[in-house]
Amino acid sequence: MPNLQFGVLELAALAWLAYAGYRLWTATASPTARWVGLGFVVLAFLWLGLNALGSRADMQAGLGPLQAFTRLGFCIECQGSLEEGRKRFRAGWMAGALIIQTRENQPYALDYKDGQVWLQQNRLEPGCTTGYIHEVVTLEINGVSDLVLEVGPGATCRN
Amino acid sequence: MINAFFILLWLELRKFGWTSILLILAVGVIYMVASSIPASGQGTLLMEYIIVLSVMLLVLAVHILVLAVLGWSVWREHQSGRLGWMLSSPQPAWLQILARAVFGAVILTLFNCAAWAILSYRLHQAGVGLPFELGLGLWLYLLGGLALVGPVLLLSLWIAAYNPSKATLMAFVVGLLGMGQLLAWGRRILEGHLYGLLPPWRLPAPTFSQNQGGPASFPGLPSEGFVLLAALTALSLYLAHRLWQEMEA
């Protein structure tokens, strides 16, 4: 299997889970409890197994040209993705703040419908805005719908 | 049957005494924290969200406390033999489960109403356009708290099923892991496969055109999470009912 990363910790956890599965199957008189226990153990096994299958690498790859991307506040239907080396963030509705740290000067494109967005205390009009982000910037977002933000080479507004 | 249901609710309330005082204290603390939200134009949005975040953390802590107390009381009844006495009473298992579930949901609903009212009022004063009825929409999403109480009842009854064999701690740890994974996997399956099958129906967390200063086109909450939570809650209540019956046997 590629990318299989079993450490001592994972092996110990798997061994403990196997023991727990045996105990939870044998140590009760209730058949439902037995099956519930088996279900939980299987779920925990899958989780450990998939972690070992290299999902850590995926977590680090999600940032692209950014160094850090922090979301604060409340967000509905939110998705971050990486497309052709650009970080792309979509939100169906959001109230809160985005804190973005880039590696160097990066172009950005931001599009939104209703609500208010401030970039470093400058109010951005609804619709498409483009420009450059350097170092750390904070986007303050107040009740905005259909927000799309792209940061990175070739960032454009497209909904 | 109705009488028995209310007696069971009353028994729950009696066990809950001290925790309810803690809940009232928590509402007071939330009021004080929320009062430090700066008035309109005097603070930054970021500052407001840090305060809101601390209130949310407090609310989360109270939820964990209430759910832990509920689960603990079921487990302890079994431990001290009181469940045995209740089990030998002629009330059917589903009524016992229902009484506990409804009691937990009502307590959490009351607390959340208070917390949400305070928070949204203070935010409204500070000029932040958080939709006023969003709290209602979110709470409907959690089936009025049943989506939290159901899994806790299942977990505590399941642990109670291991009581004489000293595997309870193990059951507790595996149960927490398993519950978390059930949610995570359910979400993954829904997102990957069922998303396209669900109708574009949305919960009544609403459009706010009439709400001055609020966002004009709040899209409402997506329906897939609601379907997932409803299915998981029904499953946990059904399994809790089966466990109760089997312990009775």
Structure description:
- The complex is a heterodimer of chains A (159) and B (249).
- Chain A contains two helices and seven strands, in the order H-H-E-E-E-E-E-E-E.
- Chain A is of the alpha+beta class.
- In chain A, strands 1, 2, 3, 4, 5, 6 and 7 form a seven-stranded antiparallel sheet that branches.
- In chain A, helix 1 (8-26) runs antiparallel to helix 2 (31-61).
- Chain A is elongated and about 65 Å long.
- The relative contact order of chain B is 0.12.
- In chain B, helix 8 (168-194) packs antiparallel against helix 9 (224-248).
- Chains A and B meet through helix 1, helix 2, strand 1, strand 2 and strand 7 of A and helix 3, helix 8 and helix 9 of B.
What keywords describe this structure?
heterodimer, A: 159 residues, alpha+beta, seven-stranded antiparallel sheet, 2 helices, 7 strands, 31% helix, elongated, B: 249 residues, mainly alpha, 9 helices
Q: Short summary of the structure?
A:
The complex is a heterodimer of chains A (159) and B (249). Chain A has 159 residues and is an alpha+beta fold. Helices cover 31% and strands 45% of the residues of chain A.
Q: List the total number of helices of chain B.
A: 9
Biggest interface found: A-B, 41 and 44 residues
What structural class do you assign from the helix and strand content of chain A?
alpha+beta
Segments of chain A where pLDDT lies below 50 for 5+ residues?
54-60
Number of strands of chain A: 7
Q: Approximately how much helix is present in the residues of chain B? A: over 70%
Distance between the termini of chain A: 39 Å
Stretches with pLDDT under 50, minimum 5 residues of chain B: 205-216
Order of helices and strands of chain A: HHEEEEEEE
Q: Treating each run of at least 4 consecutive H or I residues as one helix, how many helices of chain A?
A: 2
* Average of pLDDT of chain A: 81
| Largest β sheet strand count, sense and barrel closure of chain A | 7 strands, antiparallel
**Gyration radius of chain B, to the nearest Å?**
20 Å
User: What is the subunit arrangement here?
Assistant: heterodimer
Total strand count of chain B, please?
A: 0
Largest sheet properties of chain B: none
Morphology call of chain A:
elongated
What is the overall pLDDT average of chain B?
A: 78
